[in-house]
């Protein structure tokens, strides 16, 4: 309908792409960045590209960031395009989150929790000042006796609440699954979506979009009064069971961030009253996105939990149809393509309208 | 963990094989290359390998669980490289390695075949798998130790809520 095919311009297009090539490198006297440097020093950017491309590959994500000259959505697009050329071999066993090698684990709901809190690498509690981290020595000052206490296992906070009957069971959330085609990369997303499809969409959704949606729920548009039960970042082993072996093997490690959100309790009777869950799980280290995802996940459960859906964040069709930044940029940026015929028809209609109006007025 | 021949019955062999396949997949590529140099020294006659599936990069869908323990959902994909080889005595070696490294998968597949030879199993386990395991656990222990320095005990002020 809208844009049309055009011919010509191939020399100009080549010249334009050469300009990209030149600008991509910048001043040849400046040292060139290597993908390795991106991996090491811009790893949070790499993590974001992997999460939103929905493809975990650190090296490819770093190369994509370089080729896209730091344009994250372009880098994500590159990775998605590459992904489309690869064969899907297998599905992994669901990640064993309780076996995560935890780097960071905090709770905003309980100060004392089994296994304790561990800050890990965080900007929290830091001043936002240039050079703030430069003056710190990387070698740690081990406070005497502190690291000696063998820590107890980091038991899930949600599990403890669940045991006490104060939290809806993890397995209880869900079905409304008339829609059993779960993987949205294999089957188009239909509404109403299952929670699995919602979580998959959110996990690859645009961080900025999810952040705004999550923020809107906090500001009153679909309020759900959240507390972070647990926020964890660490490494988990990916396991598969190849049919040619028939037993499970570990094939590598990925870093993920998980957010378990406690939300307002509700029930038909006081005896049944229990907190409700929101869940966020994201590739790489991305706390902002994991928290936002947990908030939006909870907001999107409005229907299932018998709440009125009045706000954008509770509208699954609105959220899920607009959270993918590759789809969004495709449609928004396609406006750059030639719409000559389309526009000619519009302009003719308007001219005709004006002419007719002038005649009628005369 | 030393290789124990008395326990090498079939169940144990399966779990040993799962273990060495995982260890080979988790190894840093440079460590693996060193391990192969070692293996060459430890094996009198390096067998001829036929490629059954040459190394190929593809995808796996990584699944999470809703709420950490609930039903699974697709989290996102990861690149994975697989390779299958057969040696001249019929042992099939297989590798699946996370990421995009054809060389890693090929070496891992060959080592998997070699490790199935009863006469080489225990020496290769000790010479290759054990050192790789030590390197990996050391890496993990270092990360763990560094992060444990940031363990925290928060105290709430009673006066704040009064």
Protein architecture, described:
The complex is a heterodimer of chains A (362) and B (162). Chain A folds into two domains: 12-83, no CATH class; 97-120 and 152-330, no CATH class. In chain A, 38% of the residues lie in helices and 15% in strands. Chain A has helices at 10-25, 35-41, 43-53, 58-67, 72-83, 157-163, 195-203, 207-218, 287-300, 316-322, 325-333, 340-361; strands spanning 55-56, 88-91, 101-106, 117-118, 227-240, 249-266, 274-283. A four-stranded antiparallel sheet of chain A has the order 3-5-6-7. In chain A, a hairpin with a 7-residue loop joins β6 and β7 (274-283). The radius of gyration of chain A is 25 Å and the shape is globular. Chain B is globular and about 75 Å long. Chains A and B meet through β1, α4, β2, β3 and β4 of A and α1, β1, β2, β3 and α4 of B. β2 (88-91) of chain A pairs parallel with β1 (49-65) of chain B, so a sheet runs across the interface.
> What distance lies between the first and last C-alpha atoms of chain B, to the nearest angstrom?
57 Å
> Could you describe the largest sheet of chain A, including whether it forms a barrel?
4 strands, antiparallel
> What structural category do the secondary elements of chain B indicate?
alpha+beta
Helix content of chain B: 40-55%
Instruction: Please write the string of helix (H) and strand (E) elements of chain B.
Output: HHEEEHHE
**How is the largest sheet of chain A built, in terms of strand order?**
3-5-6-7
Number of helices of chain A: 12
């Amino acid at each position: 309908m809208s844009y049309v095919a055009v011919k010509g311009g191939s020399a100009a297009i080549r010249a334009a792409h050469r300009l990209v090539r030149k600008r991509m490198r910048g001043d040849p006297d400046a040292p060139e960045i290597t993908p390795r440097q991106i991996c090491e020093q811009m790893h949070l950017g790499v993590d974001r590209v992997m999460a939103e491309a929905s493809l975990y590959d650190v090296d490819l994500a770093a190369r994509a960031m370089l080729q896209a000259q730091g344009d994250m959505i372009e880098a994500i697009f590159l990775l998605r395009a590459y992904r489309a050329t690869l064969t899907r071999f297998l599905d992994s066993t669901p990640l064993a989150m309780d076996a995560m090698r935890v780097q960071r684990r905090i709770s905003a709901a309980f100060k004392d929790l089994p296994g304790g809190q561990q800050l890990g690498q965080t900007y929290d509690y830091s001043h936002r000042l240039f050079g703030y981290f430069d003056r710190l020595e990387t070698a740690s000052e081990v406070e005497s006796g502190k690291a000696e206490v063998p820590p107890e296992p980091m038991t899930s906070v949600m599990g403890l609440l669940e045991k006490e009957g104060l939290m809806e069971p993890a397995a209880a959330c869900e079905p409304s699954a008339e829609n059993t085609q779960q993987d949205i990369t294999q089957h188009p997303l239909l509404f109403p979506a299952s929670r699995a499809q919602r979580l998959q969409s959110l996990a690859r959704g645009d961080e900025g979009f999810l952040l705004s949606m999550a923020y809107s729920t906090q500001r009153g548009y679909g309020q759900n009064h959240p507390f972070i039960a647990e926020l964890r970042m660490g490494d988990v082993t990916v396991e598969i069971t190849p049919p040619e072996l028939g037993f499970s093997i570990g094939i590598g490690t990925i870093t993920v961030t998980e957010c378990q959100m406690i939300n307002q309790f509700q029930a038909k009777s006081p005896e049944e009253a229990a907190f409700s869950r929101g869940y966020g799980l994201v590739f790489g280290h991305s706390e902002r996105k994991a928290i936002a995802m947990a908030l939006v996940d909870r907001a999107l459960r409005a229907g299932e939990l018998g709440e009125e859906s009045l706000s954008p964040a509770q509208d699954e069709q609105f959220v899920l149809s607009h959270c993918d930044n590759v789809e969004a940029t495709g449609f928004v940026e396609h406006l750059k393509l030639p719409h000559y015929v389309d526009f000619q028809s519009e302009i003719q209609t308007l001219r005709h309208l004006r002419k007719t109006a002038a005649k009628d007025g005369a | 963990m030393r290789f124990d021949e008395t326990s090498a019955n079939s169940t144990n062999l399966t779990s040993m094989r799962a273990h060495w396949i995982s260890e080979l997949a988790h190894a840093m590529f440079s460590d693996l290359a060193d391990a192969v140099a070692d293996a060459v020294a430890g094996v009198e006659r390096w067998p001829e390998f036929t490629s059954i599936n040459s190394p190929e990069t593809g995808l796996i869908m990584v699944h999470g669980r809703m709420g950490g323990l609930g039903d699974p959902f697709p989290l996102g994909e990861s690149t994975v490289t697989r390779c299958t080889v057969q040696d001249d005595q019929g042992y099939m070696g297989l590798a699946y390695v996370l990421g995009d490294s054809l060389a890693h998968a090929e070496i891992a597949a060959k080592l998997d075949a070699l490790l199935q030879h009863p006469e080489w199993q225990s020496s290769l386990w000790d010479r290759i798998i054990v050192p790789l395991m030590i390197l990996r656990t050391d890496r993990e222990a270092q990360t763990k130790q560094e992060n444990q320095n940031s363990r925290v005990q928060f105290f709430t002020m009673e006066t704040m809520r009064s």
